[in-house]
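Query structure, 155 tokens:
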């Protein structure tokens, strides 16, 4: 789900999957704008939160405009504040407003740098609502997510 031209837009995406030669499992390669296990794009969430933090709209107006429930909006605000604090640390989080952090986040030249840094530091993606699931069929295996930098740039 995205927000384009002042209205919510549902789009289908093609997700690249690769097969690991050693574990024989497939893994999805998601672009930075996709929040794992969410039907909403990161920029949809940031747009909604930005309008909330600006204080220009009431919660009811935002929810109607973006087509989400109030409960969902409050869950995203709660998650935003947790992730902001994880990234900045407790003291800096107290000094930096939600609005200022959002503006700083959107001013990155390459969002990928923040996205990868956040995943390495916090072991999940920014605005991802729950931890990555354990591998299927293995109740005792310890799961951890490894983040790899690409060997070459394709852009």
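Result returned for the query:
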């Amino acid at each position: 789900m995205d927000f384009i031209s002042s209205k919510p837009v549902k789009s289908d995406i093609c997700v690249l999957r690769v097969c690991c030669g050693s574990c024989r499992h497939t893994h999805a390669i998601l672009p930075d704008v996709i929040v794992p296990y969410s039907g909403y794009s990161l920029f949809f969430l940031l747009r909604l939160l930005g309008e909330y933090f600006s204080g220009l709209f009431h919660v009811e107006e935002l929810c109607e405009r973006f087509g989400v429930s109030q409960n969902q909006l409050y869950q995203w605000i709660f998650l935003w504040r947790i992730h902001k604090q994880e990234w900045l640390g407790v003291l800096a989080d107290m000094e930096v407003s939600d609005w200022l952090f959002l503006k700083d986040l959107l001013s990155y030249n390459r969002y990928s740098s923040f996205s990868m840094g956040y995943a390495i530091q916090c072991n999940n993606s920014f605005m991802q609502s729950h931890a990555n699931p354990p591998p299927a069929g293995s109740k005792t295996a310890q799961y951890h997510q490894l983040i790899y930098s690409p060997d070459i740039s394709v852009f």
